[in-house]
Amino acid sequence: MKIHNFKLGELFSGPGGIGLGAVNTRIVSGSKEYRIEHAWANDFDEDSCKTYIRNICPQNPKSVICDDVRKLDIESLPKIDGFAYGFPCNDFSVVGEQKGFHGKFGPLYTYGVKVINHFKPKFFIAENVAGITSANEGKSLKTIVDDLRTAGDGYNITMHLYKCEEYGIAQIRRRVIIVGIDRSLGVTFQVPAPTTLKNSVTARQAIENPLIPANAPNNDRTTQSAGVVERLKHIKPGQNAWNADLPARLRLKVKGAKLSQIYRRLDPDKPSYTLTGSGGGGTHGYHWKENRALTNRERARIQSFPDTYVFEGSRESVRKQIGMAVPPRIAEEIFTAILKTLAGVKYPHVKANLNYLMVDDTSVLNELNLVTSV
């Protein structure tokens, strides 16, 4: 059988959620097998780079460039057939000020455009948080898509707001993913149909089936203060610090909008709420029964990372890496659909739910269920 490898480059690669999904992807069409092969990756965070090297390319550590993307010599990088980047979302997230292009991170998407202009890959993936649809009244997203559509020799663009729980991931996580296919190939990417639309993987299934081995990496528990333990005793599965029946002495003194994940326990019979990579006390994600925060291995399972995937760095660094990562399972679904598109293989698909002029922020914010107004 003839093997067709597509070499993949990545910017803002993080710990390798997209990279793992890519290298796990295989399809067979006729006498050909199509694969995606790691070529190079770049990220600024040292621990993320170490994690990526350890799990994706241990035999080729120099292929991961740990440096500020603004210092990256794009023209010196090896040739690629595909490109992926989850450009920094800090300035587009609904949890924050949504500075968009006026923030520190907003303009960094342009480095992906530079990669596409130089290499003219056959396909690319660009990923960001759902909040990008409402940044600058939707104008930021339109600018980004226009720049991507006209990069290289031009691309057929498909943009979709993916619901991760519909693709076998035990987490309610929304991500805007833009897929571009070289226009000269004459094909357009179709959004792969959900695989778990009516049978979402629950938090209990992800964490307990199978049970996490006692010696699993990144599974050490944090020590909770007596006050946190006492507060958690009054919070039922699925509840948070705001809707639980807490004694006055245990209530948090916060006015205005309140993040719903503060001391929020998982509901074992539903997918987890969105696990984040940052935040102080009360934002770590909490077990539905035990009075404690989740371990990083439990978080990794909810994000669909296998137990063999070892994260490098301190406990808090690992938490950040996991929370910022793209779930590898959804990355694999999308890469599989890309390879099938390129190979001319039909697959179940659904209509994309976003277009270039999408500015409907209200529906996105409501779906995310991140903010509770009081």
**Portion in strands:** 15-25%
- Radius of gyration, Cα only, in angstroms? 21 Å
By CATH, the architecture of one domain is named 3-Layer(aba) Sandwich
Total helices: the number is: 10
- Spans of at least 5 consecutive residues whose pLDDT stays below 50 are 90-103, 357-374
CATH class of one domain: Alpha Beta
CATH topology of one domain: Rossmann fold
Look at the helices and sheets and give the structural class.
alpha/beta
What is the molecular shape?
Answer: globular
Order of helices and strands, N to C? EHEEHEEHEHEEEHHEHHHEHE
The H-level CATH homologous superfamily of one domain, spelled out, is: Vaccinia Virus protein VP39
Distance between the termini: 62 Å
How much helix, percentage-wise, in residues?
10-25%
Strand segment tally: 12
Can you characterise this structure?
The protein is an alpha/beta fold and 374 residues long. It has a domain of 245 residues: Rossmann fold (3-Layer(aba) Sandwich). The chain has ten helices and twelve strands. The strands form three sheets. Strands 1, 2, 3, 4, 5, 6, 7 and 8 form an eight-stranded mixed beta sheet that branches. Strands 9-11 form a two-stranded antiparallel sheet. β3, α2 and β4 form a beta-alpha-beta unit. α1 crosses α9. The longest helix is centred in the C-terminal third of the chain and has 16 residues. The chain is globular. The C terminus is likely disordered.
Entry keywords:
10 helices; eight-stranded mixed beta sheet; alpha/beta; Rossmann fold; globular; two-stranded antiparallel sheet; 374 residues; disordered C terminus
